[in-house]
Amino acid sequence: MFPMPRVLIADSLSPAAVDIFRQRGVDVDIKTGLSKDELIAVIGDYDGLVVRSDTKPNKDVIAAAKNLKVIGRAGIGVDNIDIPAATAAGVVVMNTPFGNSITTAEHAIAMMFALARQIPAADASTQAGKWEKNRFMGVELYAKTLGLIGAGNIGGIVADRALGLKMKVVAYDPFLSPERAVEMGVEKVELEDLLARADIITLHTPLTDKTRNILSAENLAKTKKGVLIVNCARGGLVDEAALRAGLESGHIGGAGFDVFSQEPAKENVLFGAPNLVATPHLGASTNEAQENVALQVAEQISDYLLTGAVTNALNSPSVTAEEAPRLKPFVALAEKLGAFAGQMVDFGIKAVDIAFEGEVAKLNTKPLSAAALAGVLRPMLAEINMVSAPAVAKERGITVSESRQEDSPIYESLVRITVTTEKGKRSFAGSVLAGAPRIIEVKGMDLDAPFAPRMLYVNNLDKPGFIGALGALLGDAKINIATFNLGRVDAGEDAIALVGVDEAPDEALLEKIQSLPHVKEARALRF
Q: Active-site residue numbers?
């Protein structure tokens, strides 16, 4: 019986989420407010870690997390997680991008109304007993042009609500297809066009090198006089000093900010600026959103630890709960076949091609390619898995390609891995038969061999006496043969033997096998 997976909840989480873990058969410990050193001291005991924004799993924490398989962020932002370190360690990083989408979108709409009608300033004035009715002249949102920078999930919800307010919506997003723009009811535009046309600009994009200061001093100067700017996405998307200058000059009519370049923002260049509405990163702060992201992260981590299903991962291919059981035997095949290929090459790998034929080509093949790549690289890099393998291959300049063909001439499903090295190419094929992975082709020769934990590979010319001589050497070394499978081109030509053995042959025995007449190559393999 497998031990129950253990998960550490390091930041406050809804009790309902804790119940989900326990109902699903996951052991949970709740330890909030741990210092970095305290977290490092305990993290080695856990398979999963749940955080919000307070806990920071950096490279030191991840290095100490020897059993960690998954980090789940209850929320969308993962700035506090060292994703490259997690990827290198083979740890899946998940977030819950949809649990707080409506709440964040509604906050952006609330900011738009607050700015358009100057509600915070009017409230402060009224409560101070001033009754400055003529001071607070607002603007309608009706018929105004809203410019969306970022038209993903949250941006799409904002667009939908804005269209309901009878606004015109233009959107800048390099990933927005023309078809999706039509479906959303928005006009897809370039950034220059959006800056020139928008009465209100709202940002809904992650912070990356390409989006940092997307509203720079230069771009802010291109906006319409009196434009309102809303940022409920990420601090750092807007040049805060330039925005302050724009608010002071009156070119910017108002700004609603929920996020800042440095948080917690106890001080900021924007504070005290005219027509600024500021909130302390409340975008996801509703009871509904907090409950949603907590339940979502509990389901996602439980699914991954118990079934292998991967949802909303930032560094690994997604696998649905329905797909996971169907993919499992093919993941095993891809990884073992990759390990076979990896143990058969002695020179620097330049490229790996993974081809899928037949029924397997209709499945979600991304996880299979990642598993195959992990198998190929493992003989050189022991600590690698399907999460870290694609990043490691890229780092080392290995070209990885994938192809699919929906019919296979002989087998219902076939996976072929071709490795290109400085010395040429080697190809290996396998299939799943009766639920078990098998080797069906090596060096273009057909055979049908099961994988065994320890195997002997011999490439020879097919001449009489070879099998007897090999059996005698193994017998003398007291190594028992578990399985013996042969493939050949033709009598007297190239042949291979794949032998499952109970004990691994040592170097001395391999040399004796290598020196047998007609033997070209002998290798000990492990799976």
A: 234, 263, 281
